[in-house]
Amino acid sequence: LHNSGVHPNTNELRTGAHEAKRVKERAVLLMDRHPVQAQELQRLAQQLASRLEMLQSETYCLAHGGFKPSQLLFHSQHVFIVDFDGFCLADPALDVGYFLAYLRPSGLWYHRPGMRQWFETAAEVFRRTYRQAALEHGIIHGVIDRILERSRLYEAAFLFKIATRRVSRLNSPRPQELSVMLNEIAACLPY
């Protein structure tokens, strides 16, 4: 997908600055629902947003824009990607980060046994496979390394999205769940 010559019918780029704006908006929604955790939410959102605003990709390419495991269709030894309504021009790290954020099983938010190990293993398999596919398409190691590095910031941004959606769907605030999500966001941020 990231090496495709096809371009969406748009001149707009989906940049880190765009995602930074969304992080700030989502943090405000979460702070309204979880005032006890507002200070931590604000701190993480500001830290993440400032890093996203500074992101520069070597190239902007065709991106899915909402790539997650549920959008993979497996049939007859082939894998197909579906649901292209978010097609955009973006840093390839956006799709990588989106996928990794949504790869986390919901049991992770509740410390269910085996979920952390499953996620860490699955994330490593995804990163390794992405690296191998990129190499096969002529992308050099340094570029791939930088994509994977930037993907951590997008991953954190989309964890904010997941947190916001979970809060909206649940009838009662779940501060423990949000605390785990905030820890996941913090773990994605480089020091």
Order of helices and strands: EHHEEEEHHHH
> How far apart are the first and last residues' alpha carbons, in Å?
31 Å
Helix-strand makeup class: mainly alpha
Overall morphology: globular
Largest sheet: 3 strands, mixed
Q: Give the helix level as a range of percent.
A: 55-70%
Number of helices: 6
Rounded mean pLDDT score = 88
Low-confidence spans = none
Estimate what percentage of residues fall within beta strands.
Answer: 5-15%
Main sheet: strand order: 1-5-2
- C-alpha-based Rg, rounded: 17 Å
What is the tally of beta strands? 5
Can I get a quick summary?
This protein has 191 residues and is mainly alpha-helical. Helix content is 59%, strand content 8%.
Q: What does it look like?
A:
The chain has 191 residues and is mainly alpha-helical. It has six helices and five strands, in the order βααββββαααα. The protein has helices at 16-33, 38-54, 92-103, 115-136, 141-169, 175-188; strands at 13-14, 61-63, 72-75, 78-81, 88-90.
Which properties best describe this structure?
single chain; 191 residues; mainly alpha; two-stranded antiparallel ribbon; 6 helices; 59% helix; 8% strand
Strand and helix map with partners:
Elements: E1 13-14, H1 16-33, H2 38-54, E2 61-63, E3 72-75, E4 78-81, E5 88-90, H3 92-103, H4 115-136, H5 141-169, H6 175-188
Parallel strand pairs: 1-5
Antiparallel strand pairs: 2-5, 3-4
